[in-house]
Batch of 3 targets.
Target 1
Amino acid sequence: MARLKISYVCQSCGAASSRWTGRCEACGEWNSIVEEMASSGVGGGPKAAVSSGRAVELVALSGASEDAIRTPSGNGELDRVLGGGFVLGSAILVGGDPGIGKSTLLLQAAAALARAGKRVIYISGEEAVGQVRLRAARLGVADAAVELASETHVETILATLDTGPAPDLVIIDSIQTCWTDRVDSAPGTVTQVRTSAQAFTRFAKKSGAALVLVGHVTKDGQIAGPRVVEHMVDAVLYFEGDTSLTYRILRGVKNRYGATDEIGVFEMMGAGLREVPNPSALFLDQRDSGAAGSAVFAGVEGTRPVLVEIQALVAPSPLGTPRRAVVGWDSSRLSMVLAVLETRCGVRIGANDIYLNVAGGLKVSEPAADLAVAAALISSLTNSPLPPDAVYFGEIGLSGGVRPVVHGNLRIREAAKLGFASVHTARLGSGEAADGVTVSEYGALAELVGRIAASGTGQTVGDES
């Protein structure tokens, strides 16, 4: 009989220790240490494994190699994030908030592949077969030859997958519900999730099937369970969006077979998720172009240019400590832009309440949005509506200079395609093309501030708030 030993494992980062503590020493989380029974037999860890003594063949670094064989999913936005489709033998982790649409997206992709003649198996650990059938009927994919089962036992699932011909796609929804006999702990714990993911990943590599694992996310947006699961798989996708909005964004944060930071945009409809081939038009559809504090930012997500609206509101603060509310952008980056405006440009803005929002639910992380944020702030402060046909992008340095960013030509082309007539950015390189739009170049942020303030109808940038 396998000997059992007790270990204390952090449910946030997966770190193990020999004793219980109130705070994890690895990640700093409080009350995340849970006692688990780990078997020292099969699956108990490297120390318990018996070496077979078999040597592997060493080969040269150079030589012929096969390209990754891809199977298009039938969904253009999903294929964009994956890099062209599902790679045979790969493991993919999909995370997202509850109810965001993970199961809907994967069921639609499974149905499209099944209609193309592929063998697709969908294992649901959270819903009964009847519930999945009801969703398939609502989505209009009930006629697809998707093989369905409701099971959480890993060994039973693997035995089922070994019957019949090798599947082309296997979907496990979700990995937190699965459990294995190899470890003595509850489903959803770090040990169970890690061991189950290892077993499914080995099956994918051995059989050549594309494997999709669905993972829940915690309140801070991270995939629940150990972060080591992200290192086991070949791609990690996050499904983002506000449930109060119809937009959904699928973002790739890791991809061994394609570009990272790629996004796919969907719209949640009554009959499922609809692809949005032109997200810029969607994000700018409800824009109030005549209001002060609104600026259009030309961003790049992966290889796709995306135009979004940056909204800013600068209001006098009745408090001793002004408010700073930021949605969709880095709050520390906002503090830096405000400091540069105060120190380098003479704009007295720090005593005001500042509200900043990226419209449409998109999260912007690149520093190229600095110039658009600064333009929106000055526009709101001086009550100066910006030109409705202008876009802004550029990085602001601590010295007050405006620095160029990558993919400037791509951003300009996207602006021209959507009918924008002017672009405000840093000094462009010789290789950048204007594509028929007027390009206003700035070497310092004070130049843009003076240009916006000159057309204002409210207070000047030098007035006390």
Target 2
Amino acid sequence: MPTKQPTAPRSHSLEGRNIVLGITGSIAAYKAADLASKLVQEGATVDVVMTASALEFVGAAMFTGLTHRPVTTGLFGAQSEIAIDHVALAVRAHAFVVAPATANSIAKLALGLADDPVGATVLATTAPLIICPAMDAHMYENAATQRNIETLRRRGAHIVEPAEGRLASGLTGQGRMEEPARIVEHVRWVLGRGGDYAGKRVVVSAGGTQEPIDPVRHVANRSSGKMGYALAAAARDRGAEVTLIAGPVSLPDPVGIEMTHVRTALQMRDAVVAASKTADLLVMAAAVADFRPVDAAAEKIKRAGRETISLDLVKNPTIISEAQGPGLVKVAFAAETGDAARKAREKSHYSSAAFIVANDVSETGSGFGSDTNRVTFVYPGGADEPMPLLDKLAVAHKVLDRAQKHLRK
């Protein structure tokens, strides 16, 4: 029987945020149910506003059940907050998300029409507007639609570009509404602007590296990159301009983050050193290989006639020591097995770090690939600060909290 993963407090990145979700008449309206659910799971209070056309595809009762709040479906209904107070939803909104946004609704928003509850509430709000188009590819590519989108963009609307794929019409092209999980990332990114890391450049490394033995084999570790990706997302959500330098991982590129993909330790060294020259903070969360084969074979090494194989390894450079920049603050991660804090403190090559984040990857729930982590902050010349088991996004925010004290200096 598999070992049960320990539970840990889950961070809610949209806690205390009021999100208005406007739904218009598209077959993609079914995705809005998943989006509403995900926003609620992130801690947001979600108020749903639906057009009459949207009600032809999905029912209001579903959204009441998902959000535990009344759904506005008209301008004059007895339950409509717009009827009671024209700007009730608009005033308390921290963000207004229109998903799906049809070609017709985008045109009406561009013209400033207010003949349905979505358009009326958009006109009444000063909150950031996030528009998620969904329509047939030819409709999306049409010059009129593109002109309307550009008009909204010039007014400050954040456009979540639709994805390419098979559409309801049977055609293939750009017009599929972006997936709800990605839209939530856009919401977090937009709401994070002006946060306590606004104006800061943060560089994060993530994942392991692969050191080639021959064209088909390599030396690697089991790092998933989840901790580094959580750090990058947390910094973005707090307003930072983020560069994420990632080794080979199976994670999608985060929204709103500059990505650099590398494979080897030397490639990661070059990318981190270059990005750090203009950065305020470097967080080395990558599990970089300590050694690499001296020479990689040009062709696949055959097993025939061999009982053993020997590799000559050479030490990889210490990336955090080579990264330099005016006022650059460095934070190191140390993945150890057993007594992680003590072993991290003994690593002299971390001497340039403001502090070290040590974790025991042999501990259940804190190893490679897990969604949680138990870390200890190790301070030069100071006492260790152990943390409880937390999800990795919560750990990321605690790292940024502590790094910020050094940035202020």
Target 3
Amino acid sequence: MSGNNSKQWMLSAASAAILISCSFSAFAGDDKHPPHKKTNINLAVASNFYGIPPDNSAITDLINKFQAENPRYTVTVTDNGATATLEANIINGNINNVDLFLAADTDTPQDLLVNHFGLVTPYNNSLTLPLYTFNYAQGVLAFLSNTPGIDVTCDAGGTCGYDQTVYSTVGIADPSLAPYGVAAQSVLTGRYGLKSPLCMSTTTSPPSDGNPLVKQPCYPNITAVLTAVLNKEIPVGFVAMSAICSNGSYPTPGNGTSALAYFAVESTNTTPPTLVNNYNPLTQGGIAINHTRTSAQNTELEAFVAFLTDFTQPPTPDSPMMTTLRKFCYSAP
């Protein structure tokens, strides 16, 4: 090779090396184009937020948006169900390889943090004080009827919400497993005077037969209640409003149902006002689980939590998270 050709080849190689180096540098700090192959994190998601994919699912909606913004990240739901069931699965070996747990309450993530600290991990280590738990949504309890000709919304002047003299049984999620079941139990005992325990139990002493006005056994999660009402196994049930919400309105049109929202804070017009619905707000929290991850997966985990906790609202445009929350009748926590 002649001297001139040799010099020209060396200059070309050097230029190419500089371009490659610049390309890697440009993407090194860019979470949307991280310098690694596609990575994945696994989720355990409470029934209300998991919904019925692909269309009626808040978490599916969010995963699709997150992956569209971050092409090298994927997110997989490997477990869904009642919050207490998901926690038990994590405590008993985490066979579903969960990286992030999205519960239907804040008590369960706090229980993992306080009583099972070895099973959790910070989702953000970049701060002086590591962050463990976060809140991502607030839900609403709803009463759903499949009875033709009966409008439970109070607009028709007839049956308004639940009435134990009208319905032989009402479906609820098991309060020992599901936070939405706890809320339903609070409404039924506090507002309507049903006697506890509402659900049959073989673990109490003596064993409990449950309340005959409640469908026995109680359903294992809030989605199972919805399915039972829609399949006409029971006439009415307490469900998550998100399950019957379509683009911010409820109930979902065209399925022959009527529904009434039971908000956590509702009082009478009397003086002084009397609290009618005495359930605690359904604030939903999450926590990262101690599972073997690469540094790239940890980066993805932090990015996904940041995505879930971006509650930007007007006057600036809604964040993707706020758009999804409104779509499924949730509010920011």
